[in-house]
Specification:
single chain, alpha/beta, six-stranded parallel beta sheet, four-stranded parallel beta sheet, 14 strands
Amino acid sequence: MDDNYDSENLVNTATGKPRGKVTVSLLAEMSGVSRATVSRVLNEHESVNEEARAKVLAAIKATGYSKHRTQIKISLRFTKVTIMCDEHGSAFEGSYFDTVLRCLHEEGQRLGIQCEFIGRDQMSVPSRLSAILAGSEAIIVLGSDSPEILHLIKRFKMPTVLINGIDPSMKICTISPDAEISFYNIANYLMDHGHQRVALLTAHVKHTMWERTSGFVRAFKLRGIPFDMNRQVIDLCDIANVADPSGQTLELLQTRRYGTDFCAARLLPYLIDHSYFDGYSAVACICDSTAMSLIRALKERGISVPHDISVTGYDDISLASMMTPALTTVNPDYKNLAKAAFNNLIRIAGGSVPMIIRANTATSIIERGSVATIRRASPSVHPKAFEVEQDAI
């Protein structure tokens, strides 16, 4: 639209007020931009140039339009959201789930939506959970993809979003950081730093863990670097009964009581002492807590990170930058994840999501001090055989 567009037909020059109802279309006409641009400005999207943003904000000011009016109107379909997480407890303070919960709470406050949290104790009793769901208006399920819990939620037919989980029946919208691409990128990052013999320390307890393994292996395959799934993927679930014949550790993993590090602290002494990491220059861990447990266990045995072996994590929890060495990890962009979850929930409640979707949000690698660049490697199989560039330590 021409920059000299005369807005007198839209705004009463005597009163300064719009002649009719203020709509996105009206704001677009007054600003000389598209409706999509107005929408992006109203939703505080970054991909709008400053000139266009200024025009839209001027139109908003001239009309007295509340830029959150549309959003508030939709969100009033529910004023409270029930957030469910069965992987939460005192041990999870500062963890991935704790950070997601905090960001969900902050986003709820920004939108004027009350967040009510229910944890494992309330979710474990079906009658109690049913009573809570009966009084709910909308639901965010964090982490849990238990078939029993998802089946119960579906019975109540209310707006629901699942974060970091999967509904095999595809009846619930899901949103998660892109785990497959994250570990694809981590694998490539390690290879770019000269690491070709790399182990993946994981725990295949749910769908997202398999996605991480898939991305990691895919990166090696595409670069033509040999990767032995049976040896290089170290699954804590497979090790549990071997390292702990009592079955207690495996039970903790199977019942989701594995703590933030997936029982790694229990199992790593066995893994290190039985040479599971020998021959590898780097270990990619399923999460930051597992990586921190690994670094501690290695240090106790005189193995230095990153001089002797490099380690990466996933989650970028607060402690990742405070340990020595500071941990190279993946940041899931928690705030963006929370915004995406509420955006989908609001659209579902407003009837503007006509189908079930599975969405992934972007992540980024945070480079710190736990990964060294390999200069050369000797034929020895001991992890200390790898020489690294001094300036990378």
